[in-house]
Amino acid sequence: MAACFFLSLAAILFTLSLLPGSTSLSTTVGATYSASTAAAYAAPPAVDRVAHTVSSLGLSALRLDASDPAMVRAFLYSNTSLLLTIPNQLVPPLAANRSNALRWLYIHVIPFYPRTKISTISVGNDLLESSPKFSTFLLPAIRNVQLSLKDLGIQKISVSTTFSFINVITTAFPPSNAQFQEPAVDTVIRPLLQFLHDTNSSFLINLYPYNLYKMRSEIPIGFPLFQEHPFGFRDDLTTGVRYRNLFDMMVDAVISAMAVAGYENIPVIVTETGWPSFSTDPAEIDANPVYAEMYIKGLLCHLRSGKGTPLRREGVSETYIYELLDKQVKQGRNWGILYPNLTSKYKEIQYSGSDCGGFFHILIMAVGQLLVFALLAW
Ligand SMILES: *[C@@H]1O[C@H](CO)[C@@H](O)[C@H](O)[C@H]1NC(C)=O
Ligand SMILES: *[C@@H]1O[C@H](CO)[C@@H](O)[C@H](O)[C@H]1NC(C)=O
Ligand SMILES: *[C@@H]1O[C@H](CO)[C@@H](O)[C@H](O)[C@H]1NC(C)=O
Ligand SMILES: *[C@@H]1O[C@H](CO)[C@@H](O)[C@H](O)[C@H]1NC(C)=O
């Protein structure tokens, strides 16, 4: 028994040695601000209050689904970087004539940039699914926005478009089997990847472990919620790597699909991810505030660990939590991290800094491991 005890102690020390010494956030963490949600309010919160709240929460980026110039103005001189979205219905006119792209930039970017930090412009959001008839316009529109920025001498704003995991990736089980769905891979995605490669831009994807968990009843709840325990893993037998959470599996599925298409090194930005705290459908028992808080906490802690994913050491470059504001009208699901009065729904969550549950979290993990190893030793 004594020998067993020392063995388990050695295992714990080994586990602790794997914890990074100084934890620094390697991924930019932000939130998504949906104009449609804000519009559901009798009195939408003032843009200045939103900007102030984002800064005081410690979020370093905000993704706007409709790029209201008043909102872009509210972030003048702030340290928050913005990811702007051009709505799907503007894609055909932007593709038809570069002066339309220039005009869009003159309204949404030029008056504010660089005093407002704008990192990326997404031309469309989930366009292949929401507006499939516009798909042939997508790449020409992206090119016109990028060329217009170049004409204006702006080098540092990258241009891309946003996809939705469920609508473009074939599978996440195992990640190494993942591919882009036909026919979009040939008509849209491969040419886009070439563009992203040529312009140093990123692949943007909305990715919800919650949705995949709901579709696959065999997935245990701890797996999407980052609740690591010794038997909670899945191995990818092709690559020989072990997954301990569903987020990493889905990110690596995206990375594998890009590699299969011939592009291995394009950075990935998760433009939406989250967990609902409420659903009007009583059958959706996993949409509750306890799980929502566990998901966000687990995600932040995982991103801060600097471990990346098994297939990509540096992980994703930015992650946006869906979404900043709760819906006031309780229809469907609630996703917000803030109540409509802009107070935090989850008091315990720290959106910035390197704290990850702190010393006691590590201690509890170590004691937990000790118990498990002691039980195995018996
Ligand atoms: C932005 O960051 C810089 C450097 O960290 C800091 O000095 C400045 O006060 C910040 N500005 C705002 C508006 O928070
Ligand atoms: C593009 O728009 C500009 C300004 O509206 C117009 O002068 C020009 O003729 C258009 N070009 C094409 C090819 O439609
Ligand atoms: C892309 O990044 C590389 C390395 O940082 C740089 O050499 C190259 O000029 C960049 N290309 C563009 C189009 O910005
Ligand atoms: C904000 O709204 C939440 C939820 O409706 C409520 O519990 C909280 O007391 C409100 N806080 C303030 C300061 O009004």
Automatic annotation (TrEMBL):
Instruction: Give me the reactions it catalyses.
Output: Hydrolysis of (1->3)-beta-D-glucosidic linkages in (1->3)-beta-D-glucans
SUPFAM superfamilies hit by this protein: (Trans)glycosidases
Keywords in alphabetical order, please.
Answer: Glycosidase, Hydrolase, Membrane, Signal, Transmembrane, Transmembrane helix
Where, by residue number, does the polypeptide cross the bilayer? 358-377
What superkingdom does the record give?
A: Eukaryota
Q: Name one GO biological process term.
A: carbohydrate metabolic process
Gene3D superfamilies this protein is in? Glycosidases (3.20.20.80)
Enzyme superclass (EC) = hydrolase
**InterPro entries, sorted:** GH, Glyco_hydro_17, Glyco_hydro_17_plant
The record's GO molecular-function terms, alphabetically, read: glucan endo-1,3-beta-D-glucosidase activity
Q: What is its EC number?
A: 3.2.1.39
Which stretch is the leader sequence? 1-24
**Family statement:** Belongs to the glycosyl hydrolase 17 family.
Protein name, please? glucan endo-1,3-beta-D-glucosidase
